[in-house]
Amino acid sequence: LVINSFYQASSERRIVGVSPEESTLYRPTSEFQCRDGFKIAFSKINDDYCDCSDGSDEPGTSACSPLGKFYCQSRGYGGHYIPSSFVNDGVCDCCDGDDERSVECVDVCHDKWEKSRRQLEDDIHLHLDGCELKEKLIQSATFALEQKKNDLLSLEKQGTSPSKNQDEEKEEGVFDEFIFHLRYIYTFLTGEPKQEDTKQKKEDIKKLIQTDLGQHNEFYHLYGASYQKKHKQYTYKLTPFESVKQDDTLLGLILRR
Kind of pairing, strands 234-239 and 243-246? Predict the structure, then answer.
């Protein structure tokens, strides 16, 4: 009786458990229309008995649980909904205690707001730090890819030589075998890459350049990397832009666009 009289007295000011956006639906009149169109006497609002099939007549009690929902005013923090089953269950779910009439709740809305504010500031700083790091990665990737393109040009030039007329070819023909052996000895002594190595380098660079590394190549530094994680008896291996494996079992390929 005490609880019901509180809700009925409150109806003169506002209906408990109703959001500001829906308050116009609960203006005191002779009748209240449920959301499904069914009409009941306005005095039945929050009388702890579920008259509407959608539970809209009991926004401030748990009578229509689990259909109903209760709006926490949470002044100073921000309004939100909780299930109607939480109303008058002896636990303060709304930070201002709006959901409880049988127990005394401490208003902690300001403390929650302050905590949320600090968390928001931390999130903003984290976002700004991430943007700064991303910009550095993009700049580094741009420089590295430009170097790779220059390396590719140099490698391609190594495989070409100026054209010669027939007389020049005849004059140099007698030295071909000698030059071949000389180059072999030079390669052996200096460790200069063989033709096969040069070809592989060219293919590797072309493969890198053709890979989708992000809109601004921000994922360049993941190229060629490999990450492993052991879970129970399995070892999972992720190679960005290549594949995902569970031990020796291929779980999928990462297709390039």
Answer: antiparallel
* Paired tokens of 21: 């956006």
User: How far is residue 38 from each of residues 35, 135, 147, 204, measured CA to CA in Å?
Assistant: 7, 60, 74, 72
Q: Hey, what long-range contacts does 85-91 have (CB within 8 A, 24 or more apart)?
A: 86/62, 87/17, 87/60, 87/61, 87/62, 88/3, 88/61, 88/62, 89/62
Hey, which residues does 40 pair with through a beta bridge?
32
Does this model's pTM top 0.85? My answer is no
Q: Degrees (nearest 5) of the Cα angle 37, 42, 48?
A: 95
- What are the pLDDT digits (tens) for 163-183? 555 555 555 555 555 555 556
Q: Is the pLDDT of residue 254 over 70?
A: yes
